[in-house]
Structure formats: structure tokens, C-alpha cells
Input
Amino acid sequence: MRSTAASSLVRRAARAGLIAVAWAALALAPAAAEQAEAPRKPAGAQLDFLFGALKAAPDAESAKHVEARIAALWMRTPSDTAALLMGRARQAMEAGNSDVALKLFDAIVKLRPDYVEAWNKRATLYYLRNDYAHALADIREVLIREPRHFGALAGLGMIMRDIGDDRKALAAFRQALTLHPHLDNIPDLVKSLSEKVEGRDI
Output
């Protein structure tokens, strides 16, 4: 019984730690959006335009085209080495070689810590490995660098849902939808979680 009780305490402590990290990550997007805008680099100006187009997209098909252009900008890096490693890491992920992919992503974020998509891809890999603590840490790094990263916000929502924190999952999904109203599957998740969360004690 003692070992069972101890295990339960450990699980509760681990869940509390994950939620604390998630809360910090979730707070980054609106906080960054409230800051005065600095002069934008060319890629930043393109992203500003594309995010405006994404919000105004009349349907999912139109939004998909804009989303692809945003993703292409996020994938860019001035480092040929980082770009090469990213290509190999993605191939390793697609082939199911997660250990190889992880080592490659580790090398990329060490080489180019400013490369947002490297953090995001590694967060995805950690999520697929059910390593939520590391996934959340990487999502936080993504949102520090790009608070409009709807993919990272959606990933944050998925993790929160998986660990049973529906309220924070709903908050993350709603933030993602303010940026990308046609994000795949997220409107349905918001609808179901809204009914679940807001239909009980608040």
C-alpha cells in the first residue's frame, strides 16, 4: 500500500509540474502580442501579411494555401548546415527512426537556437514519444520566439487534454483558433471541450 500511495504522489507531482510548465507557455502568446511592435525583418513582414490573410481566409481550402506559405517561412534558416540536418531529421521521423531524429534535432537547436521550427519539430517528436515534459519545454521555446505559432499552441492543447486538464487545453485551442480559424480538427475540439468545461463548475 505504501508503494502504491508513493507512486500516486509521484504521479500527482509530475502532473502538477507539467501543468505549471504549460501555464507558463500558454501565457507567452498574449503577453508577446501586447508588446509594442519592433521594426520587422522582411520575413517578419511577410508573416504579418500572411497571418492577416489567414484570419481573413473565407474557407478551409484557402486557409490551407496560406498555412503552407507560413510553414515554408518557418522552415527557412540562413544556415545551410541546419537546413541539411533538418531535412535528415524529418526523413528520420517519417521513417520511424525517432532516436536518430532526436539526435539531429538536438544538434540543430544547439547550432541555431533561434530556429523556431527546429524546436517545434522536436516538440512534436517528444509528443509522439509521450515525453510530455520535454515537449512542453520545447513548445515554450517556440512560443518565446514566435507567439503566433498555431501549431505549437495546438500541440500544447493536445498535451493538456491528454493529461486531463481540459480547461488549459481549451484555452490553448482557442488561442490557436484566433490565429488560424480553419485549423484542422481544432474547432471540433473547442466545441466539445467548451461543453465539457463550461457546462460544469467554473
Residues 41-76 form one domain. The CA atoms of residues 157 and 172 lie 5 Å apart. The mean pLDDT is 85. The chain is about 80% helix and 0% strand.
